[in-house]
């Protein structure tokens, strides 16, 4: 039997190959399984895990499992066992008495009652209940053996249930109705390793020798509790006796009829599918990979992407949700990053609608950080979507004030493409998790995520509003909607400091080379000190630089991308603390500031005598920009003290950090400050900043 694989070793050509089961285990360190269908990828790994349990190649204890993973225990023993006499003929898909994965009792009915192979593939059939339309089941395409094998494994694990294309007189009345398969109603999670062998070792559950259970390779395998389809026991479910039984569970009765093409290739010509075994509810020890949402295994939903419920995957950081000894608990003890592949089946009234699959990073040492990032990231996305929805409602009411009640919902959906918006959020969410999993600065990752989220929401809203009529009413509706969106995104009662910093406009534009994410992250962290009333760290930041560096000053330096700008970031943090230590306000404009330092100096003064009209302020500003080498800290401190004394808005702190970092680059910063100080048009727009 063949399975598809991709060579991954550096000295090999990267190519797609079909391997036998024995070759897959023998070359498991150099290959990774590959398939277009996420469900087939899960089914292949499940079947290989079942074979490992079936031959006794599995760890018995948690300690032994860790040794398997860290020492990269070879899986050659599995290939040797499968090539022995015990498995002679048991891996043959067309064996006359015990065909692999099939029910031999159906073979006599194949010549007369068999249908086309489309019924075997749930992606082609679309529904298990094929009682009204049979034409597509007779499609002329006949799949090769490896495709039929993959489709059969998926059918065993993911079939959605319902009435089958079967008759009562074949095996019994109960044979005509199939129950939902074991994975169809929950999301299956697989820890993906560097190779097939690494993946299998990561996902193998350590159990005692007697607790592994018996593997199911065919309905003909002797088993006293095997299901029958007649009599009072026909609807009786049986318990799973171990992981070998679980991973090879025969969820359907299948019979395949082979044929040979003119070129000699063997294909599957006709198929019969009927009901399979019934499973009792699984105990927790057999739900090793399950992610619990509200106490139940996570399910795939048409209206909600998997990543929106990903916090549950990291919920082991929350003691109330920890399951104890499971896949994620074992991975937590490894000192490496592992990618978690989550796959679910999307259905609607038992009809196949597609697969949903996501990959999430998992690092045991950062599990709590990933949990918090996933939780807050999903919450921020939901709040941003609600802000966009409120803006779309404003545009609808302004542009179509006389719309009928039945039209209002349609107009709102037209002005807000929620699915498209969530699809754009997904990319930023995964990058947030990647940044946290890479061990970088969490505050920097949060700040970048907030910037991306705000920009995406605004862009999407402008695109959606482009459908409004090019008239006075349409123009006014666009302006009102964008104003509502900005107001909603900058609401300090809804969004955290990083989000507010991303929405505050700046009076002076900063070039992309200067506007670094590090400076925004620094501003977000400093703002968090004010909003959380952390006076201890604020006070520690004001300690003179020649004293021993405090913990707060060390934290401020962490946001510097290079050593050359650490001094500028530390100075910005000290100026921020000097301003806010005595001005306890959570107003986002005053917390994050606005404009560069030239615009801030223009706000110093009383009445009309402000900025350049005040001789003292003008002398102070000239002292600030008198040299192209370095700004004197004394003059900066005096400027901040003057701003604080008149309760004026401080400079935009992220911009100030960038300006101080690039002060000596040709005097450009001095020119911008001068333009902001002496030009009336450089004043901040207070209405837009609120």
Number of helices: 28
Q: Which band does the percent of strand residues land in?
A: 5-15%
So what's the overall shape? elongated
Helical content, roughly? Answer: 40-55%
Distance between the termini: 66 Å
As a whole number of angstroms, the C-alpha radius of gyration is: 32 Å
Low-pLDDT ranges: 506-517, 681-690
Q: How many strand segments? A: 14
Secondary-structure class: alpha+beta
Main beta sheet strand tally, sense and closure: 3 strands, antiparallel
Strand order of the largest sheet: 2-1-3
- Rounded mean pLDDT score: 83
What report would you give on this structure?
It is a single chain. By secondary structure, this protein is of the alpha+beta class. The chain is built from 28 helices and 14 strands. It has a 3-stranded antiparallel sheet. Strands 6-11-12 form a 3-stranded antiparallel sheet. A hairpin with a 2-residue loop joins strand 11 (337-348) and strand 12. Helix 14 (418-437) packs antiparallel against helix 15 (442-465), helix 17 (497-503) crosses helix 18 and helix 24 packs antiparallel against helix 25. The radius of gyration is 32 Å and the shape is elongated. It starts with a strand and ends with a helix.
Question: What's the topology here?
Answer:
Elements: E1 2-7, E2 16-20, H1 21-26, E3 31-33, H2 38-54, H3 62-71, H4 76-82, H5 110-113, H6 122-125, H7 145-158, E4 162-163, H8 168-171, E5 177-178, E6 188-192, H9 196-203, H10 243-247, E7 252-260, E8 266-275, E9 292-293, E10 296-297, H11 327-332, E11 337-348, E12 351-363, H12 367-399, H13 405-415, H14 418-437, H15 442-465, H16 472-489, H17 497-503, H18 517-531, H19 535-541, H20 551-557, H21 566-580, H22 588-592, H23 597-602, E13 605-606, E14 609-610, H24 615-624, H25 633-645, H26 653-661, H27 668-678, H28 686-689
Antiparallel strand pairs: 1-2, 1-3, 4-5, 6-11, 7-8, 9-10, 11-12, 13-14
Helix pairs in contact: 2-7, 12-13, 12-14, 12-15, 12-16, 14-15, 15-16, 15-17, 15-18, 17-18, 18-21, 18-26, 20-21, 21-25, 21-26, 24-25
